[in-house]
Amino acid sequence: MKLQLLRTFALSLLIGMMSLGLAACEDEGPAEQAGENVDEAMEETGENVDEAMDEAGESVEEMGENVEEEADESNY
User: Fold this and answer.
1) Cα–Cα distance measured from residue 56 to residue 75, given in angstroms and rounded to the nearest whole number
2) Residues in CB range of 28: below 8 A, 6 or more apart
3) Could you read off the pLDDT tens digit of each residue along the chain, which spans 76 residues?
4) Distance CA 64, CA 2 (A)
């Protein structure tokens, strides 16, 4: 009977300590906040690079069309 009571107490203590540990993890420290800020900045930078590449691709495509039109006109 004592062994059963001791196991129950130990299990309850373990569950309680784990619950406190998880509750403590919910609070973000300054390092975690800084990490999130870096992640957001990198994501925004990636989006800006994608937009710039799309615009550059459109410009190159437009220049190619202009060159093609000029070449066609000069052949006549």
Assistant:
1) 29
2) 36
3) 677 888 888 888 888 788 766 666 666 778 888 888 999 999 999 899 989 998 898 888 999 888 888 888 887 6
4) 87
Burial of 51 (0-12, 13-18, 19+ CB in 10 A): exposed
pTM of the model: 0.49
Tokens 């973000």 locate to 28
What tokens does 14 get? 């373990």
Angular region, 27: left φ>0, alpha ψ -120 to 50, beta rest: beta
